[in-house]
Amino acid sequence: MNRQEFLQSTAMAGAAVLLSSLESWATTTPDKKLRVAVIGCGSVSNRYIPQLLSSKMIEVVSLCDIKPERAVAQNKQYNVNAKTYANIDEMLKGVPFDMMVTLTDMQIHGALNKKALMAGKHVWSEKPMANTYAEGKALLDLAKSKKLRLWGAPAVVNSPQFAFMSKQIQEGKLGRIASAHGQYGHTGPTWSSFFYEKDGGSMPDLGVYNMATLTGLLGPARSVMAMTSIVNPERTIDGKGKIKVVAEDNAHILLQHDKGVISHVMCGFCYFDPHGHEAGNQTLHSIQIYGDYGNMRLIGYDWETNGVMLDTDWEKPPVLVSTDKGGYVWQEGANVVGESILTGIEPKINVEHALHVLEIIEAARKSQATGQRIKLKSKFPFPVIK
Ligand SMILES: NC(=O)c1ccc[n+]([C@@H]2O[C@H](COP(=O)([O-])OP(=O)(O)OC[C@H]3O[C@@H](n4cnc5c(N)ncnc54)[C@H](O)[C@@H]3O)[C@@H](O)[C@H]2O)c1
């Protein structure tokens, strides 16, 4: 092979690799951006839409909401220049796109994600990606069978503080890990009733972050015991008036990990926590991990991190370390996975991890209903930080 033939063949090989990593996207998108459709133009879309628009690799081509005026309003508010739709079927028949970002009421995520996958779209879903583990697993099987990608929020494993804590544990800086605790609560959303309806609750909305963090740091949970309750049986929802609360608004979940490690998550919609929610305070922590040589506390929330208080010395006081956020923001998940479709670089966020957390939530509900410890079957690639 002469030099010219060599250059030609390596160029062709390179082009082939690039093409395969771009999957079908490359052949359908002339401007080489990932075309994204957002479904659900409510509260959280105010974080997602600007974040998506900030990516050079992503183009938001469609916005959809069953309250179509919301899609129109967001299109204008953020100058998106997208097509707007009143339902998913119209959107799937409309302007072509590559990935759907699901930001609707929690209970409908699974059904919408399935429709998108059936139509050949990649999916990033806000949590939970489905109402049950079985429904979520079926979505993943469907995605795999169609060579599509599916991911579920949250993106907590992306923060530098998560990586720092994982490294401390893996390097044995805390000694043998024994126990961990996570908590997240506030007084509950007022803008939509789905948070309080069947398959809603503080676990899929709030506890999900701590569950992803603790399993991401300590490994998959093998079994779950939980107590959940409804503290506030009636809520007033904006524009709707009083509603009956059906889903738990207070939950304590015990997780059994390998090697004797036990962790605990506490979440609820009845927690007075105005300063914690701002997460700007450098003293309040939401996650704590204890070993026999040290402990560490995550300052702020695991979704909005401020640093880690590390305590590994009998004499010296704990030190605040890992305070650089490195650009991490909690609403970055769809950007990170969307860009990964183009670059071929596998993100830390993993769909099996999201499914594992979904199984924990379901097991916690079952444990509360039966008074039993519930065994889990799902796993995910661990450690998350290699
Ligand atoms: N609000 C936040 O700060 C926040 C933060 C992180 C994650 N989340 C998650 O984001 C999701 C949405 O929460 P939210 O607070 O934005 O709720 P929201 O009620 O403000 O918005 C949901 C939107 O989805 C629309 N919708 C419902 N069913 C639909 C359907 N079938 N097709 C199209 N649109 C539909 C509703 O009309 C509404 O505009 C939830 O899973 C929530 O847990 C919210």
Attribute tags:
single chain; 11 helices; 9-stranded mixed sheet; Dihydrodipicolinate Reductase, domain 2; alpha/beta; disordered N terminus; binds nicotinamide-adenine-dinucleotide; Rossmann fold; 6-stranded parallel sheet
Please describe what this structure looks like:
It is a single chain. The protein is an alpha/beta fold. It folds into two domains: 33-152, NAD(P)-binding Rossmann-like Domain (Rossmann fold); 156-330 and 337-375, Dihydrodipicolinate Reductase, domain 2, CATH 3.30.360. 36% of the residues lie in helices and 23% in strands. The chain has helices at residues 3-28, 45-53, 68-77, 88-93, 109-118, 133-145, 160-170, 202-218, 274-278, 333-343, 351-370; strands at 34-39, 58-64, 83-85, 99-102, 122-125, 150-152, 177-185, 223-229, 234-237, 241-244, 250-256, 262-268, 285-291, 295-300, 305-311, 319-321, 374-375. The strands form three sheets. A nine-stranded mixed beta sheet has the order 16-15-14-13-7-12-11-8-17. A six-stranded parallel beta sheet has the order 3-2-1-4-5-6, sandwiched between helices. A two-stranded antiparallel ribbon has the order 9-10. Strand 2, helix 3 (68-77) and strand 3 (83-85) form a beta-alpha-beta unit. Helix 7 crosses helix 8 and helix 8 (202-218) crosses helix 11. Mean pLDDT is 92; it is low at 1-30. Bound molecules: nicotinamide-adenine-dinucleotide.
